[in-house]
Write a structure and sequence with these properties.
By secondary structure, this protein is α+β, with helices and mostly antiparallel strands. The protein contains 10 helices and 16 strands. The strands form 4 sheets. Strands 1-9-6-11-5-4-2-3 form an 8-stranded antiparallel β-sheet, covered by helices on one side. A 3-stranded antiparallel β-sheet has the order 8-7-10, with no helix packed on it. The relative contact order is 0.11.
C-alpha cells in the first residue's frame, strides 16, 4: 500500500493519514473495507481447529450450565458442540493465521504497520446473541466481519482499573455506557478499528456470524522492564557493585541519604543505558513466537551442501507458520536478523530478504552467508520444506 494514497481498506484515508489521526487515538468504522469479502473458512472448519491439540480455543456461554458467562477451554470434541444452546454462545480460536494460509493472507493488507507488531488473527463464531460481554482490550485490533452480522456498541475509553464482574473467567466490565453515536451493525467486509482501552461489546445478530480479529502486540512497562533487566543481567561478564569511595563521615549511620540514592541510580542507569543492547533485546522480544512449541527443531543437523542442492533443483523453503522475522541495521552493510526470539548477525541484504515475504528459493544463494544461515534456521524449525500428504512440516 502506498502510504500517501487513499485506501478503501482505511475508509478513504491514506496510511499516513490513518497513522497520524486515528491509530491509537480513536475508533474508526470502515464500511466495505474488504469488498465482496468471502470468509476464508467455514464455521465447521473453525470448529475442527478447536478440536485439535495445541490450538488455543475457548467456548463462552452466556447462560452456561455452571452459571453465567461460563468459559470452557479446548481442545473440544463433537459432543461439546452438540450440547450447546441455539443462541448466546461464542467460539473463539486464536492464531488461526498459523494454520490456515488463506487467513494469513489477510495480514498482507496491513503492511503499513510494522510486521513485528502483529500478534495473530483470532476468529470467532457465534449464533444469534453470542458475545463475550462488554470488555476492554489493551492492544490495537482490526475487527473484520467475515459472515453474518454483528452489532458493535462502543462505550468510550476507560481506565485500566475499571471494575470488572468478579468470579468469572472473563474481564467483563461491571459498567458499560453505550455511546449512541458509536452503535453499528457490521456486514461482511466491514471493518472496525479499535485502539487500546476502548470499551466495546459485540453481539451476533444472525446465524453463522464470524469475525476476524487482527490483533497487535503491546508489551507492558512492567513486563518490558523485567525482561530487559534479565537480558542485560545475562550479558554482564563482571559484577558491577555499589561503591561510595570518598564519602563524608555519617551524621546518622541509619540514614539513606540523597547521595547514596544518586550513586545507586547511576549504577543502574549506566548498566541499562546502552542503545545497542536495547535494540538487540527489543528485536528478540518482539519476534518471540506466540506458541514456542510450534517450532520443531531438527533431531539431526542439516547438511548445508544438500540444502543448497535442493534449492538449486527448484525446491523452496517456507517460513514456519507463526514464525516472526525482523531486522535491524548494524551499519557497514551488516544487520541483525531477528527470528523467533533469536538474533543472527548477517549481511543487511540477507536480513532484509529473509524478513520480507519474498520466497526462499535458489536466488537467495547469491547473497553471502545464505547457506549457513538457512541451514541454521531449518535446524531450529523456523524454516522448513513444504509438506506433502505424508509428511509433517519441517
Amino acid at each position: 500500500m502506498a502510504t500517501d494514497t487513499p485506501s478503501a481498506l482505511l475508509g478513504g484515508l491514506s496510511a499516513e493519514d490513518f497513522l497520524r489521526d486515528v491509530w491509537q487515538q480513536r475508533p474508526l468504522l470502515i464500511r466495505g473495507a474488504f469488498p465482496d469479502f468471502e470468509s476464508p473458512l467455514s464455521p465447521d472448519e473453525l470448529a475442527g481447529l478447536a478440536c485439535e491439540d495445541n490450538i488455543e480455543a475457548r467456548l463462552v456461554e452466556e447462560h452456561g450450565s455452571d452459571g453465567p458467562w461460563q468459559v470452557s477451554h479446548g481442545p473440544f470434541d463433537a459432543a461439546a458442540f452438540a450440547q450447546l444452546a441455539e443462541r448466546d454462545w461464542s467460539l473463539l480460536v486464536q492464531a488461526v493465521d498459523h494454520y490456515v494460509p488463506e487467513v494469513a493472507e489477510l495480514l498482507e493488507q496491513f503492511t503499513f504497520l510494522p510486521r513485528w507488531r502483529l500478534d495473530d488473527i483470532m476468529v470467532s463464531y457465534a449464533p444469534p446473541g453470542g458475545s463475550v460481554g462488554p470488555h476492554v482490550d489493551q492492544y490495537d485490533v482490526f475487527l473484520i466481519q467475515g459472515s453474518g452480522q454483528r452489532r458493535w456498541q462502543l462505550g468510550g475509553k476507560v481506565p485500566d482499573d475499571a471494575p470488572i464482574v468478579p468470579g468469572i473467567d472473563l474481564r467483563i466490565l461491571e459498567s458499560f455506557a453505550v455511546d449512541a453515536d458509536q452503535d453499528w451493525v457490521l456486514e461482511p467486509g466491514d471493518m472496525l478499528y479499535l485502539p487500546p482501552g476502548w470499551a466495546h461489546h459485540g453481539v451476533s445478530q444472525s446465524d453463522d456470524c464470524m469475525t476476524f480479529s487482527v490483533g497487535f502486540r503491546a508489551p507492558s512497562a512492567d513486563e518490558s522492564i523485567t525482561s530487559f533487566a534479565d537480558y542485560v543481567g545475562e550479558l554482564q561478564t563482571t559484577s558491577h557493585r555499589y561503591g561510595d569511595a570518598g564519602i563524608a563521615p555519617c551524621e546518622d549511620p541509619a540514614e539513606v541519604d540523597d547521595a547514596a540514592l544518586a550513586r545507586m541510580r547511576a549504577l543502574i542507569l549506566d548498566t541499562l543505558d546502552d542503545p545497542a543492547q536495547l535494540a538487540q533485546w527489543f528485536g528478540r522480544v518482539m519476534t518471540q513466537p506466540k506458541y514456542v512449541d510450534q517450532l520443531v527443531p531438527n533431531d539431526h543437523p542439516s547438511d548445508a551442501d544438500e540444502l543448497v542442492a535442493a534449492l538449486q533443483d527448484g525446491e523452496i523453503l517456507e517460513r514456519a507458520p507463526g514464525s516472526r522475522f525482523a531486522w535491524r541495521s548494524l551499519g557497514n552493510d551488516r544487520a541483525t536478523l531477528f527470528v523467533d526470539g533469536d538474533g543472527l548477525n548477517c549481511s543487511l541484504a540477507l536480513a532484509r530478504r529473509m524478513a520480507s515475504l519474498a520466497p526462499v528459493d535458489a536466488t537467495i544463494l547469491d547473497l553471502p552467508g545464505a547457506s549457513v544461515l538457512l541451514t541454521r534456521l531449518v535446524d531450529t524449525g523456523s524454516l522448513g520444506w513444504p509438506m506433502d500428504d505424508e509428511e509433517e512440516w519441517g
